[in-house]
Amino acid sequence: MRNGTRDAFTPALKPMQWEVLGSYLQPFGLTRAQKLIDQGSVDRTLYMVESGSLTVHLEDEKGRVRLAVVSAGSAVGEGAFFTGLPRNATVQAADACKIWSLTPLRFTELSNRNPAIALEIAMALGSLISRRLINKPKRVAVT
What we know:
The chain is of the alpha+beta class. The chain has 4 helices and 8 strands, in the order αββββββαββαα.
């Protein structure tokens, strides 16, 4: 899950810490055009993209507007993960993807048992959000 772009989700974890984190995540696949997030839904799950790419769309009365493409090595769902607000965009697979999900409940368990890993995840997500907010085309792609 390497990504050298400004949109990379880059927690500074050691290999052993990645293994611990992996035990709190749920892997699953998406097929091309399958929806991951529906705009307006209330769900706080964070999604990390291992392979493939996702498109982020804003849906209004005139149709869909593509906001961003999120590639392997990045994450989506970070806005709702922190705020608990409804999802502000729809996210779907641009091609086949492998995704890892982290629910708020599993993050709380991680925080209680492995606070250093949880803190690093939170800081890396904060960094990702900040980079997206200063990048005007991706500013509204915080999901």
